[in-house]
Specification:
- It is built from 10 helices and 8 strands.
- With 285 residues, the protein is α/β, with parallel strands linked by helices.
- The protein has one domain: Alpha/Beta hydrolase fold, catalytic domain (Rossmann fold, 3-Layer(aba) Sandwich).
- Helix 3 packs across helix 5.
Length: 285
C-alpha cells in the first residue's frame, strides 16, 4: 500500500530541497532544529527524522508522529515529507518526527508485530529525550495506509501512559479480519506481513486490528477516506467510526467520494490538511 505517483513526485521535490543534518538535536536550546536519520535501534531501518520548532517548551510543545505506508513491506519516511511540510505550516507550534521501521520480507522476515514494536520503540526513544529536546510528552500519531494502521495500534493499544492526544488515520486498515475477507489482493498483502493465512492464526489477525482495542479512553480520531479505494475500502473506516461512536470517543470522517488509495489531487490533500488542523485545534489541549 503506497501513496502513489503524484505524491511521490511532490515528495521528491520537497526532499531534494531539504538540507540533511544527521547529528542528534542539540540539547538545552529552543532554536528550530532538524535532525535526519536519527537511530532509535540497531537496524538500519530503525531511524527517524526530527523537526523541533523555535521557542518550544516542555509544557506546551506537542509532537506529531508521522508514519509511512507501503503494505508493511515497502515504503520510506521520505514519502511523508510532503505531509510533514504541509502540517508544519498549519501547526507551527508542533514538533514532528517522521518514522521508518523494519519491513516484512519474503513472508518470513520482520513479520507482525515487528512494525508495531518499532513504532513503539521510536516514540519511546523520542519521549525519553523530551526534556533534552524541550518538548512535552503529548503526541498526535498520524499515518497513511499501513502507517495509519500502525498509528492506530500505538494510539489504541500500545500507549500505556496515554501520551497520545489524537489519531490521524489516512485510509488505514482497521479490522484485519474483515480486510482478509475482501479478496485476494488484501489476502496477499496480509499474508506477506503475517506469514500466516487467517485460518492459521486468527488470534494474530485479531490482535493486530486497531478496532479491537478501542475503549472509552481512546483518543479523538479523524479518519480520512477515499470512496473508491481498491485496497482499504470505506467499510474499514466505517467499522472504525462505529466502534469509536459506540464508546463515545470523539471522531470525524473526512470522506472524498472520488478518492482512491492516496492517489488524490493536491486540492483534496489540501482540504484534508485543513480538516486535520481544525480537528487538532478543537480536540488537543
Amino acid at each position: 500500500m503506497k501513496i502513489y505517483l503524484l505524491i511521490s513526485c511532490i515528495v521528491l521535490l520537497f526532499f531534494s530541497c531539504t538540507k540533511e543534518n544527521n547529528n542528534p538535536p542539540a540539547t538545552g536550546t529552543t532554536q528550530a532544529q532538524v535532525a535526519m536519520d536519527i537511530s532509535y535501534g540497531l537496524d538500519p531501518k530503525q531511524k527517524t527524522d526530527i523537526y523541533l520548532p523555535e521557542g518550544r517548551t516542555e509544557t506546551n510543545t506537542k509532537t506529531v508522529v508521522v508514519i509511512h505506508g507501503g503494505g508493511w513491506t515497502g515504503g520510506d519516511k521520505s514519502e511523508m515529507n510532503f505531509i510533514v511540510d504541509s502540517l508544519k505550516k498549519r501547526l507551527p507550534g508542533y514538533a514532528f518526527i517522521n518514522v521508518n521501521y523494519r519491513l516484512a520480507s519474503n513472508n518470513t522476515t520482520n513479520l507482525f508485530p515487528t512494525q508495531e514494536n518499532d513504532v513503539k520503540a521510536a516514540i519511546d526513544f523520542y519521549l525519553s529525550r523530551s526534556s533534552d529536546y524541550k518538548v512535552s510528552k503529548d503526541v498526535v500519531v498520524a499515518g497513511a495506509s499501513a502507517g495509519a494502521h500502525l498509528a492506530m495500534m500505538y494510539g489504541y493499544k500500545d500507549d500505556a501512559d496515554r501520551h497520545v492526544k489524537a489519531v490521524i488515520d489516512y485510509f488505514g486498515p482497521t479490522d484485519l479480519v474483515a480486510l482478509w475477507n475482501i479478496g485476494p489482493a488484501q489476502q496477499l498483502i496480509l499474508f506477506a506481513v503475517t506469514g500466516k493465512l487467517y485460518d492459521q492464526d486468527p488470534v494474530l489477525y485479531s490482535e493486530s486490528s486497531p478496532v479491537n482495542f478501542i475503549t472509552a479512553q481512546t483518543p479523538p480520531t479523524i479518519a480520512i477516506q477515499g470512496g473508491i479505494d481498491p485496497l482499504v475500502p470505506p467499510a474499514q473506516a466505517a467499522v472504525l467510526l462505529a466502534r469509536l461512536q459506540e464508546k463515545n470517543v470523539i471522531n470525524q470522517l473526512a470522506y472524498y467520494p472520488a478518492g482512491g488509495h492516496g492517489d488524490w489531487s493536491l486540492s483534496v490533500y489540501g482540504d484534508s490538511f485543513e480538516k486535520i488542523q481544525a480537528f487538532i485545534t478543537a480536540n488537543v489541549r
